Amino acid sequence: DGGITQSPKYLFRKEGQNVTLSCEQNLNHDAMYWYRQDPGQGLRLIYYSQIVNDFQKGDIAEGYSVSREKKESFPLTVTSAQKNPTAFYLCASTSAGANGYTFGSGTRLTVV
Amino acid sequence: DAKTTQPPSMDCAEGRAANLPCNHSTISGNEYVYWYRQIHSQGPQYIIHGLKNNETNEMASLIITEDRKSSTLILPHATLRDTAVYYCIVRVEQKAAGNKLTFGGGTRVLVKP
Asked: Measuring CA to CA, which residue among B112, B113, B108, B104 is closest to residue B10?
């Protein structure tokens, strides 16, 4: 079945370390997105990519970086510059004409 | 994209219909109404969307007022598994990939036995 896979499901990081969250989709979708969700809050857009080798900052891009070298992959790196990285991270994808966005199951990042 | 207003929470009895309201008074003529839901600790799930006509699928019905300033998502027979946060979003038609999806606070629905 087609879908989006995020890994790992849970991730622990020491302060000052960079960490990369994986997002892979086999839906042949053109666009991919990264959202951050804090407890009891809605989703906030970090970065998005409309096409391979191109991406744009979302509303809260500071302290994060992405790459889009392949259509099916959109990894997110949480850098040490992100002051409060503990959150639930969601990846999504879509294409023109699709019925909405497809989301992954999320990665819960905790800084220890 | 137009802003939406939803009640922060509501309860519903199992087996009864759940009616979730959404106000979008600044909606533009080319903006659709989308509904998603997020079960705890999972990614949001697409439910339904519409422009001006009422829509129905296997999950829910969407009723949009004639002036399009508000809409109601109807879960016809709520089950305990429908307990989730429901998000109402308005945005332009997805003719091109890359349109951003902006989420508000949503409505936290609790289905009780």
From this structure: B108
